[in-house]
Amino acid sequence: MKEIPDIQYITRDDTACSHSEQARLMFQNGIKWVQIRMKKASEAEILAEAEKAMDYAGALNGRLIINDSVSIAQKVSAHGLHLGLKDTPVNEAREILGNGIIIGGTANTLEDIRRQVSKGADYVGLGPFRFTSTKENLSPVIGLDGYQKIMGQLRELNISTPIVAVGGLLESDIEPIKSTGIHGVAISGALFSKIIGPTARCPD
User: In the CATH scheme, what architecture does the domain 7-195 have?
Assistant: First the structure.
């Protein structure tokens, strides 16, 4: 089983920092796992940011995950790739990228988790925990009770694939949600505010 860090930062569009700069700042502040997520950008724009972010990852001992795009993950030799339920299936991405890369998949239900695990996902991002403005067409909110129920069902099924909570998480949510047995958390806005703070410019 590949090592999956317990905190992941997901880059966001609505900041003074570019996606690669967000990755740099996170790596500089001890976050080792950053996902580049640029839903409204062109492939060329994503590739340019991903290449810069990979340079920062190499210099600062971080790991970079690409959201959705198998081709960009391949072009920049990313450490990981995260795929949604409607993206390229995990097993097909694995055939292209090989066994060395970490590939995770999105889930909203127990059935989704089983599907992603059956296709060979190294981890599953389960969410959303609560409403989040960073994602359009949001799936039904799970909440703490939902995570407790699903994690219990996974234990009964002997499914040990790491589950990462995602979607609207605050720092105060981490301890309660980790108590469910979840492996880790993916955070965007709350982590950005904590590390970078409200700013009209990107810190150097």
Answer: Alpha-Beta Barrel (3.20)
